[in-house]
Amino acid sequence: MTAEAKNTVSGDGFFNAALKKLLNVGGTACDVALIILMLIISFDVIMRYVFRQPTLWSFEVTEYCLLFLVFMSMAYVQQTNSHLKVELVFGLLPTRAKNFISLGTAILSLIACIIITVHGWNIAMNSYELNQVSNTLQVPLFIPKLLIPFGGVLMCIEFIIRIGKISRSLMGKTA
């Protein structure tokens, strides 16, 4: 097998590189969104409690930032294997048992992500069909709601890659 074929089979090919780049850009965008979120909240607190002039738009924008932060960072965190884990008992298990448990949790997580993605898509399309807009900024609500299925698809792809790596490891091939 050629080196290029091995890279494609192992998930290190063009698709994986493009996905990694996309998730890195998404991770950086989440960093920026977090800073914007902190600035908006600080601005709103100052306006509300110092000048007694609360902003009307800040709550809505912070909701969009939070939605962006959650659904755009999920796949990046999965790719970098940075999710919170409790490894008290897991760390004591043999490698093969760890792989079986990891495979099971990855499959269950993939199923959960598929459900969230489909439901998120339905919610976004329902908002589109009903022409729903936000009260304050008049933003079409299907746009921020599309972050749910978009982030869900990225997360599903990451779990599929993870399932493939764990399966290859269980079959004795390099992961």
Describe the protein in words.
By secondary structure, the chain is mainly alpha-helical. The chain is 74% helix and 0% strand. It has helices spanning 3-10, 14-49, 58-79, 95-129, 142-145, 147-170. α3 (58-79) runs parallel beside α6 and α4 packs antiparallel against α6 (147-170). The radius of gyration is 20 Å and the shape is elongated. The two termini are 16 Å apart. The relative contact order is 0.13.
Key terms:
elongated, 175 residues, 74% helix, 6 helices, mainly alpha, disordered N terminus
Summary?
The chain is mainly alpha-helical and 175 residues long. Helix content is 74%, strand content 0%.
Biggest sheet statistics: none
Q: Strand-and-helix sequence, N→C?
A: HHHHHH
On the 0 to 100 scale, the average pLDDT is 90
Note poorly predicted spans: 1-10
Tell me the number of strands.
0
Distance between the termini: 16 Å
Fraction of helical residues: over 70%
Question: How many individual helices?
Answer: 6
Binned strand content:
under 5%
Topology of helices and strands:
Elements: H1 3-10, H2 14-49, H3 58-79, H4 95-129, H5 142-145, H6 147-170
Helix pairs in contact: 2-3, 3-6, 4-6
